[in-house]
Every structure is written in C-alpha cells, then in structure tokens.
Amino acid sequence: MITKTNTANRGVALLISVLVASVALAVGMGVYNRTYKELLFASFWRQAQVAFSAADTGLECAMYWDLHPAANYTCFGNIAASWPIVVVGTPQTISMDVYGGCVRVEIAKNAAYPFTTINARGYNVSCSAVTSGTNPRIVERGLRVDY
C-alpha cells in the first residue's frame, strides 16, 4: 500500500528557521550599529578634552606671564622672555604645541577695565595641522579671561 505525504506542510520548518535567522541578524546589526556610534562619540569627547586642556594650559601660561613679567620661566619650551611685549591697543598672538595639541593665545591690553583680555583657543592637533587646515576632524575649544 502506497501512502501519500501531505504536501501542504512542506517547507514550514525552513520558513520558520529563515524568519528566526532574519530576526537574529536584525538585532545583531542594531547592536553593532549602536556600539559603533558609541565608540565614535567617545573618541570625539576624548579629542574635545585634548583641545580644552590645551586652551586651559595656554591661558594659565599667559596669565602667569602677564602677572609675573620679571620671572624667568618656560612654558612648554617657549621661554616667556621671548614672548611679544603687549602694548595697549595692540593684541599679540602666541602659538605653541602642548601635550599633543595646539594652543593660540591672544593677549590684549586695554586702557580701561577690563585691563587685560586673554583668549586661548585649544586644538586637538599640532599647530602646523591647524595652520594647514586640511584635517576635517580638528576640534577647537576656547577660554577667555578678563581682569
């Protein structure tokens, strides 16, 4: 006696396994995408911290130089005595590499309050890379003090 198999249920196991694999792949891709974005975000904040630290360092050096002009000290290889003399009404800019970043400090003397304004702009790359402007991932952070 010959029995016939039910052809209506054929391929159901294959269909279910393809659906489960598709759902697992979609979840895996979502987790991968989220992890990748978190790594990019963490890298950006690390670069922003380098730029902020450079700006803070430059600001502190310039303030110390301005408040102690007779002191003989160096600020990251730049001898303070070689810094430009700031005249009232003529701002001066100093650039220097600090800890893997660059800082540009502008010092301005005024006749009225605020008597001194110091702007420090820190970057996450060297000063030569800032000048060339070819790096699309340059991060800039700035600080300003008036006294």
Question: Could you characterize the architecture of this molecule?
Answer:
- By secondary structure, this protein is an alpha+beta fold.
- It has one domain.
- It has helices at 12-67, 127-132, and strands spanning 74-75, 78-79, 92-98, 101-109, 116-123, 140-146.
- It has a four-stranded antiparallel beta sheet. The chain has a two-stranded antiparallel ribbon with strand order 1-2.
- It is rod-shaped and about 110 Å long.
- This is Type 4 fimbrial biogenesis protein PilX N-terminal domain-containing protein.
- It comes from Candidatus Yonathbacteria bacterium RIFCSPHIGHO2_02_FULL_44_14.
Task: Please specify the SSE layout and strand pairing.
Blueprint lengths: L11 H56 L6 E2 L2 E2 L12 E7 L2 E9 L6 E8 L3 H6 L7 E7 L1
- Report helical residue fraction: 40-55%
Average pLDDT, all residues: 86
H/E order of the elements? Answer: HEEEEEHE
Structural class: alpha+beta
Computed over alpha carbons, the radius of gyration is: 30 Å
Descriptors:
two-stranded antiparallel sheet, 6 strands, alpha+beta, about 150 residues, single chain, Type 4 fimbrial biogenesis protein PilX N-terminal domain-containing protein
Concise overview:
This protein is of the alpha+beta class.
